[in-house]
Amino acid sequence: APSGAGMGLPAAVRDRVAAVHRESTLPERLRLYDGWAAHYEQDVAALEYRAPHLAAASLAFAFSAPLAGARLLDVACGTGLVARELHRRGFRCLHGVDGSAGMLERARSTGLYQQLRLCVLGREPLPAPSEHYDAVTLVGALGEGQVPSTVLPELLRVTKPGGFLCLTTRSNPSNLRYKAELEAALGQLERSGAWQKLLAQEVACWERATAEKESTQGTGYISGVVYIYQKCPVPHLEEG
User: What is the annotated signal peptide range for this record (predicted)?
Assistant: First the structure.
């Protein structure tokens, strides 16, 4: 096992990752993401960040319809890491939203999205009509100090009945309170009949830990989880 979690990571990478997960005001956080955009892909490569790959693989597996025709919304799309993985698996109709203009600029340069919009999740509704997408992804941004778990109904709103939602969160110590809140909200929506859970996959080596105390059992990595939900079709009301 590595002698110190995150110790092999450059200090600048550790600092940038820590900064965006810290409690901060929304404008401050968006400014951090704008500033991070230029280094983001090198940093997540150094972290061995596997969420985009795992999420895209899980979502593609859930689909029975041809992927090329599916309309997909990549929420908190960042620089387009998830889009790259989705595209590799055959998804072609990709729309993205993010709260950071700097990140969107990078995403635009990939040429993978047919539409990109600025949207601060949790503050404003998604810029899409109801029941518009065959799938919605929110990978990496459901976490402490990031997107609140209260956004789930908004993600459901823009998903077609029978459509899929792919979500991820981290299971490291500083995110456990958030994860418990998120899972309570996921469960509540399932009990209300809004969606059904198809997958909740815990992954041990999600990304490299940036601090010893975050590492899973001294492995030098933190763990995470991929969830796949399917939006329930609207029940037909009995006549009369």
Answer: none
Q: Could you tell me if residue 64 is inside a domain?
A: yes
Look up the pTM and report it: 0.92
Specify the CATH number for the domain of residue 150.
3.40.50.150
Q: Is residue 223 part of a domain?
A: yes
Average predicted confidence (pLDDT) for the chain = 92
Handedness of CA 100, 101, 105, 108 (dihedral sign): positive
Please state the φ and ψ torsions of residue 40, each to the nearest 5 degrees.
-55, -50
Number of domains comprising the chain: 1
What dihedral do alpha carbons 12, 14, 19, 20 form, nearest 10°?
Answer: 110
Q: Is the pLDDT of residue 5 over 70?
A: no
- Nearest Cα neighbor of 100 from 32, 147, 44 is 32
CB 152 within 8 A of CB 106: no
- A 10 A CB-CB count for 200 gives 13
Q: Which of 201, 182, 197, 179 lies closest to 58, judged by CA?
A: 201
DSSP states along 98-131: ES-HHHHHHHHHHT--SEEEE--BTTB--SS-TT
